[in-house]
Amino acid sequence: MAAVLDALAPYVQKLITDIAGEEVSMLLGVSSEITKLEDNVGSIKAFLTDAERRRITDQSVQRWARKLKDAMYDATDIMDLCQLEADKRRESEGGGLKEKVPSCFQPLLFCLRNPVFAHEIGSQIKELNQRLEAIYKEADRFKFNIGLGSNPELRKLTDVESASMKTSSEFNESAIVGEKIDKDTKELSHVLINDNKLNIKVVSVVGAGGMGKTTLAQKIFKEKTIQEQFKVRIWLCITQYFDEANLLRTAIEHAGGDHGGKQDKSLLMRTLTNILSKDKFLLVMDDVWSEKAWNNVLSIPILNASDKQTGNRVLVTTRLEDLAQRMQASFHQHHVSPLNEEDAWSLLKKQLPPQHNQVVGMDHLKDVGMKIIKKCGGLPLAVKVMGGLLSTRSQSELEWEAVLNHHAWSVVGLPKELDNRIYLSYEDLSPQLKQCFLYCSLFPKATNIGKINIIPMWISEGFIQPQHGSSSRGYQLEDIANEYHRDLIMRNLIEPTRDTDADGYYCTMHDVVRSFAEFMTREESLLVQDEQTPGGSNHSLLRRLSIGSTKSEPEWGILEMQKSIRTLLINQRIYIKPNDSLCSLSRLRVLLIRGNTGVWWANKFEVTPWVPDFPVHMDMDKDGAWCSLEEIGPLSQLKWLTVHGLDNVSRSSSAKKARINSKKHLTYLELYWSSSEFIGSWDGEIEKQQQQQAAEEVIEKLCPPPWIQHVWITGYFGRMLPNWMMVAATVAFKSLKHLKLEDLPCCTKLPNGLCQLPSLEHMYIVNAPAIKSIGLEFQVSSSFEVGGGVVTAISAAFPSLIRLCLDGLCEWEEWHWEEHAVDVTAGTIGMPALRQLVISNCKLSVLPPGLANSKREALRELGLSRLSNLTSVENFPSVVELGMFDCPKLKRINSLTRLQNIRIIRCPNVEVLEGVPLLYSMELEDRTMETLPVYLRDVNPRYLKLTCSKKLYESIMSGSSSENDKISHIETRDIGYLQDSDAA
Questions:
Q1: Are residues 67 and 168 in the same domain?
Q2: How many Cα atoms within 13 Å fall on the side-chain side of residue 431?
Q3: With the CA atoms of 234, 236, 242 and 245 taken in that order, what torsion angle do they form, in degrees rounded to the nearest 10?
Q4: For residue 675, what pLDDT is reported?
Q5: Which of 294, 314, 335 marks a domain boundary?
Q6: Within a 10 A sphere around the Cβ of 258, how many other Cβ atoms?
Q7: Which among 440, 470, 541, 435 has a CA at the least distance from the CA of 70?
Q8: Domain count along the chain
Q9: Is the domain of 174 the same as that of 285?
Q10: DSSP string for residues in 284-315
């Protein structure tokens, strides 16, 4: 992270407020100094937003900001020392004082019992106040804008910034390359002109930042057919902090009207309505970041004017997937694709000056140029910026190789054009979210950013703060962090990997975005790769260090020099000697160890004050030379634990010594075996049975504590899952919300206790090929025995389950689920809260009656993929979204009375689609069909996306085909075709 000033200061102030009380501070003898510290931090908060912005380009502000950050970090260290001393005293006294004294007073009261410590703390606070007062006085010369300090709605771009950010309808031909943009232009122009009977239609061009959305819109805006069709054409660039009246005045001017200098919003809206009511119009809203411009300003005049005539259109470019459908109009969505490499190469050459871009002499640069292109990820903006950078270099392989191999582009400053685009996205983030975003750049480029890793790190660093009124602090912090994670994905600042699930458990950061983040964090954070070392005077005050080099093995002694390190990520082998220690890293809060790393970790954690409270990730070495489960035992305060290489643990006694079940703060547990590698090495059936038995014994001893919230088991090759997942044991896990069982090659049966988990919300079972049937495991019994006594079961199976994913159970043929008489009598059904169900890659031929229950009202989304034997989907009255993929025997889809959106992809034998009266949107794809399905005559969606063979496409588009009659009643049609090579 670069500590974002307007997030760090409030965090520090809250620490001071929480830890200090008037009576206690008086007893401590530093009452005035603590009050002064809180006041000093509060005074500085007022102008930090402006300081944070200006430090990027003003070196003197940057130096001032660095002093302030160092002081703020020192303040957190002082508060931490108080808390640590309090915790030590509490443990030594058996916690007796805890019940007598309010929690906010405890740390300082404990300090009173150690007068030497109290004097030291008082001296440090006094010295810190002197530093802050000097920093505050120094700020006077920068004339910071106090108005930007606290309210994000007041943050406005300056006139110069705003002008440089805005787009217009004019475009530079140097940004146009390839046939794809011509094809997209013609397609979208046709969509805009077609269906004149519609009063208003919204066309949304969606894609990541820098993908070319604006360029495509500009090209459409200049098309001759568009100019002929729309007499009134308006181009509006919707900046983040737009002025409502000014936006309306601009629209009136572009429409050829006169706003008369009006300031009143309602009068301007009325003027715009009158102008647009006279002629058919096209409105382009470029670079829309939220619904505010539409909802608060433009929707009323646009919709009112559209009531008086047909054929009006709105073209929107945005990163928001669902913006168009929230605009109260018929809509069409188009996703902009990345440039292919050849088109990107052409675009890059267009950026070079004439003396560079000679036909002769460019071929020898193409190989290195293509490598640079790959780093741009198909983003036209990134390609253009890199072309501009290369235009400043001589036309030689050596110079281009230097650009290609530049370790951190941001170290020497990013090109201005790229800065503006990413900076705009960055400025839209809250201060807390900025910190979370920047923190992601600590993960090496080749490493996925695991949600299970990054969220506890954010919490540990203090980036996630509880909201007012929260009754459960730990639960809410995780909730807020999950929202931040989703927000970053939505904004395309991190991107889910292709094979991740819907929650984005694994993400990556694009190189262009990473360069920006590294630039912003350059003074506080360092990602060491290739042959770098973390030492050196330039990094003497590093706060965060990530080591991901594959070519060097820095020694621990170098790391011990980094006294200010708060986060240490080790993603490679690093040489650690027996006498090495974490003692010198006294401020360490986050430690992530991935890769073949050292031994003797347990004693290091014991002498490091903060690490035991935060995430730890450990690997079990094959020869046991450097890490063992026993070393986890002393880490009693662990909250998040990931253990890899469990196939190398052969003794259950070692697993037992890890004492997983007794860790009072453990909420996240991930256990990994390497099943695919290990199974292939077995020598015969006897060894197979021995290894399976060992794995079964080990997992039994890794039972999590009752308060666990997240369990992820991957690669386990035992024949049975552990007894702590059976019905008599799972009643203890009342807090478990997330469960993922992945890659279980030998497990033949799921445990029967899963359905009893009262708080389970998300369950994923992935790649379990030995399971052939599911029945009682997913149903409750009326009672069962525990310790000789009878316990009444919960009233419904999976009472809190929201999302269920069953993927890769490739031999699964039967799902027995009938609602029992006891359920009917009680008026309950299994999985009553289930909203989303995904089933993929199995042999089910029918969905169970218990699933298709008329009382099931929560189920909204149903996704069925690669079900080779499935013949029908019927009687799901609550389902709104249905996706069918690669189900070759599917024939009937019937009685989905609330269905609004359906996708039928590569299901060639569907004959019946009926009982779907509310159907709004339909997508049908099958490159093999020779005629359109007859059922299309009997359904009436407003929108149809049809992808078929080229022959059928041409027949439909001819207009004379009987095939066209089957879909002529559908209001909006988007028809395309697939060549054989295009089909998935």
A1: no
A2: 24
A3: -10
A4: 61
A5: 335
A6: 11
A7: 541
A8: 4
A9: yes
A10: EEEEE-SSHHIIIIIHHHHHHHHTT-S-EEEE
Domain CATH for 437: 1.10.10
- What lies within 8 Å, CB to CB, of 438 at 6+ separation is 1, 2, 4, 517, 520, 521, 525
What pTM does this model have?
0.61
CA 851 to each of CA 727, 768, 815, 819: distance values in angstroms, whole numbers, following the listed order: 21, 21, 10, 9
Contact in structure between 457 and 481 (CB atoms under 8 Å): no
Token digits of residue 492: 């395309």
Contacts of 154 (CB under 8 A, 6+ apart): 147, 148
- The pairing of strands 668-672 and 640-644 is parallel
Query: Reading across the β-sheet that carries 449-450, which strands appear in turn?
Result: 449-450, 506-508, 495-496
The rounded distance, in Å, linking the Cα atoms of 556 and 578 is 11
Mean pLDDT of 169-190: 71
- Cα gap 328→291, rounded to integer Å: 12
Q: Is the domain of 312 the same as that of 168?
A: yes
- Kindly state whether residues 186 and 269 are assigned to the same domain: yes
**Tokens for 950?**
């080229």
- The token pair that represents 96 in the structure block: 């007796």
- Strands (DSSP E) contained in 743-835 are 762-766, 773-774, 783-786, 789-792, 803-807, 814-815
Residues 236 and 274 in one domain: yes
Residues 184 and 53 in one domain: no
Identify whether 238 is part of a domain.
Answer: yes
Tokens found for residue 118: 């109290």
Residues in the chain: 984
Instruction: Please give the structure tokens belonging to residue 865.
Output: 């993929």
β-sheet bridge partners, residue 884: 864, 904
Residues 652-693: pLDDT tens digits?
777 788 888 888 878 888 888 876 555 656 667 777 788 888
Cβ–Cβ < 8 Å for 611, 592 = no
Judge whether 910 lies within some domain. no
Give residue 819's pLDDT band: very low, low, confident or very high (50, 70, 90): low
Question: 921-940 pLDDT, tens per residue?
Answer: 999 999 888 899 999 999 99
Taking the C-alpha atoms of residue 800 and residue 754, their distance in angstroms, rounded to an integer, is 12
Among residues 155, 183, 210, the one where a domain terminates is 155
Terminal CA-CA length for the chain: 41
Output the average pLDDT for the chain. Answer: 75
Q: Which residue has the higher pLDDT, 26 or 454?
A: 454
Domain that holds residue 364: 341-406
Measured from the Cβ of residue 928, the count of other Cβ atoms closer than 10 Å reads: 12
Contact assessment for residue 323 and residue 291, using Cβ atoms and an 8 Å cutoff: yes
Q: What is the pLDDT of residues 324-339, one digit of tens each?
A: 677 766 778 888 888 8
Q: Which of 45-54, 125-134, 416-425 has the lowest mean pLDDT?
A: 416-425
Radius of gyration of the chain (CA): 31
**Residue 903 — very low, low, confident or very high, per pLDDT cuts 50/70/90?**
very high
Q: 33 and 135 share a domain?
A: yes
Judge whether 658 and 636 are in contact, CB under 8 Å.
Answer: no
Q: Is residue 516 part of a domain?
A: yes
pLDDT at 451: 84
Sign of the CA dihedral running 157, 158, 159, 162:
negative
Using a pLDDT cut of 90, give the percent of the chain over it.
18
Confidence of residue 874 (pLDDT cuts 50, 70, 90): very high
Whether 186 is covered by a domain: the verdict is: yes
Residue pair 261/276 in contact by the 8 Å Cβ criterion: no
Q: Where are the beta strands (DSSP E) in 181-260?
A: 200-206, 232-237
Examine the domain organization and report whether 180 and 325 are in the same domain: yes
Task: Kindly state the DSSP code that residue 959 receives in the 8-state scheme.
Answer: S
Query: What separation in angstroms does the CA of 895 have from each of 233, 880, 900, 910, 912?
Result: 45, 12, 12, 15, 11
Can you read off the two tokens belonging to residue 57?
Answer: 């380009």
For residue 206, the domain's CATH number is 3.40.50.300
| Residues 6 or more apart in contact with residue 903 via CB below 8 angstroms | 882, 883, 884, 885, 922, 923, 925
